[in-house]
Amino acid sequence: MKDITMKVKExxxxxxxxxQKVKELGQKISEDYKDSDDFLMVCILxxxxxxxxxxxxxxxxxxxxxxxxxxxxxxxxxxxxxxxILKDLDTSIEGKDVLLVEDIVDTGLTLKYITEYLKGRxxxxxxxxxxxxxxxxxxxxxxxxxxxxxxxxKFVIGYGLDYAGLYRNLPYIGVLE
Length: 177
Ligand code: 5GP
Ligand code: MG
Ligand code: MG
Prior knowledge:
Layout: E1 8-13, H1 15-32, E2 39-45, H2 49-56, E3 64-71, E4 84-87, E5 97-105, H3 109-119, E6 125-133, E7 146-150, E8 156-157, E9 173-176
Parallel strand pairs: 2-3, 2-5, 5-6, 6-7
Antiparallel strand pairs: 1-9, 3-4, 8-9
Helix pairs in contact: 1-2
Bound molecules: guanosine-5'-monophosphate and magnesium ion (2 copies).
Guanosine-5'-monophosphate binds at residues 47, 72-73, 79, 102-111, 155-157, 161-163.
């Protein structure tokens, strides 16, 4: 049997730490958006999918969901700065309170591009929720409203995050060997 945990040098954030943090974020977001008439969570595929699924189930107010897919890196571990929209939103976000759900903010280039793009579609409000933040790598300023964990400058995998398309299914966040 092939064991994907072989590629994990170190576990940075455990399943239990993730569970606790996602619960806290869900409570905070539910409180902050409780008066919204049209709350929409937009997940950025593919990396955000595991976080989105967990976070969504900690939301206690009415919410709709949408997905976008973007490509920024290819199979490399460093940013190209080039963002392509591979899958756009299915519905209009005009007048809605939009919360973008991301796996990780690294250089910030991807998020910068997506937020500018979405602002053009006139949401009522637009905020960012990211599971991970690597502030030391930032190239452009982006405002993050909800954050799981700040991490050092290491390439991480698991909990939605991949290396060459693999390891997204690890239930924790680990450092690639
Ligand atoms: P940014 O545009 O902020 O540099 O990077 C955004 C995207 O790069 C993330 O959504 C993620 O897909 C990828 N990325 C950045 N850092 C890492 C990392 O440590 N591990 C993995 N697997 N992907 C990363
Ligand atoms: Mg992402
Ligand atoms: Mg990736």
